Amino acid sequence: MNRMLFNFRLFSKVLYSFLVLLLIILIGTIGYILVEDWSIIDSFYQTIITVSTVGFGEVHELSNLGKLFTAFLIITSFGTFAYALTSITSYIVSGDYRLYFKEFKYMKKINQMNNHVIVCGYGRVGSTAIETLGEHNNNCLLIEKDDKVVEQFRMKTSYDCIKGDATQDELLLKSGIMNAKALITTLPSDSDNLFVVLTARELNKDIKIISRASKSSSVKKLKIAGADNVIMPDSLGGSHMAQLVATPDVLEFIDEISIEGENKINLESIDFNEIPSDFQYKSIGDLKKQFKVCNLIGFKDPSGNFIINPKDETEIVPSCKILVLGTTDEIKKLNQIFGI
Question: What is the pLDDT of residue 211?
Answer without folding.
Answer: 95
